Amino acid sequence: MKWIRKYKLLIVAGILLALYFTGYSVDRSPRVKVNAETGILDLTGVRLDQDIVGLEGQWEFFWNRYVLPGETEVAGDRAYIQVPGSWNKFSGNPEQSGYGTATYRLQILIPQETRLAFFVPRVHTAYEMFVNGELVAGAGTVGKNLEDSDPRYMPQIVLFESRAGVNEILINVSNFHHRSGGMLESIQLGSEENILRLQTG
Predict the structure, then answer these.
(1) pLDDT digit string (tens) for 37-57?
(2) I want to staple 35 with a disulfide (CB 3.0 to 4.6 A). Which of 18, 57, 64, 79 is the partner?
């Protein structure tokens, strides 16, 4: 049945050509998989000008704490949590509730100074994001209870100049409006061009 196989190939080729000429793409950017361990993500071997990396793995985690840059060394109650994922099943959360507040911290090792970008997805349900001590993004109002917090889902792109060596990400999150709390989706890191293409592609 050679004609059937040729017919199928023609159909596939037609679909690919149609996708090409309409500019459609699920993801035009290459990706690499690197997992953080004990709060450190080593990207010294990654070409960030070419690749997009999900900030996944073990983040430092301060449950029911609101920690600001410069306070992590004295904050206490340090643990680790898997990102992406809900904090409902975190062992230090005895009620297994999605309600609460927490601080996430990740140290990223980058070999050189360069201009990069994050794509920050939805965070459940309000957050503030600091990079190297500077407040760079946020959505909603982070609070310690229902009355003081305000939820908002607002995926966004954040541009920043990386340092050569250690770069610190600190994210304060609160949730009193959804059954699952925390960072349920991974932040993406890459060049400004690739992150913008990830959104528009």
Answers:
(1) 999 999 999 999 999 999 999
(2) 57
CA–centroid distance for 31 within its chain? 14
- Identify whether the C-beta of residue 53 lies closer than 8 Å to the C-beta of residue 189: yes
Place of tokens 């004990």: 38
| Neighbour-count burial for 140-172, b at 16+ CB within 10 Å, e otherwise | bebbeeeeebbbeeeeeebebebeeeebbbbbb
Question: Residue 101: what residue type?
Answer: T
Q: Cα 110–122–149 angle (5° rounding)?
A: 110
Q: What is the DSSP string of 146-181?
A: TTT-B-----EEEEEEPPSEEEEEEEEEEESSSSS-
129-148 pLDDT, tens digit each: 999 999 999 999 999 999 99
Calpha distance 130→122 (Å, rounded): 16
| pTM, full prediction | 0.83
SS (H, E, C) the chain: CHHHHHHHHHHHHHHHHHHHHHCCCCCCCCEECCEEECCEEECCCCCCCCCEEECEEEEEEEECCCCCCCCHHHCCCEEEEEECEECCCCCCCCCCCCCEEEEEEEEEEECCCCEEEEEECCCECEEEEEECCEEEEEECECCCCCCCCECCCCCEEEEEECCCEEEEEEEEEEECCCCCCEECCCCEEEEHHHHHHHHHC
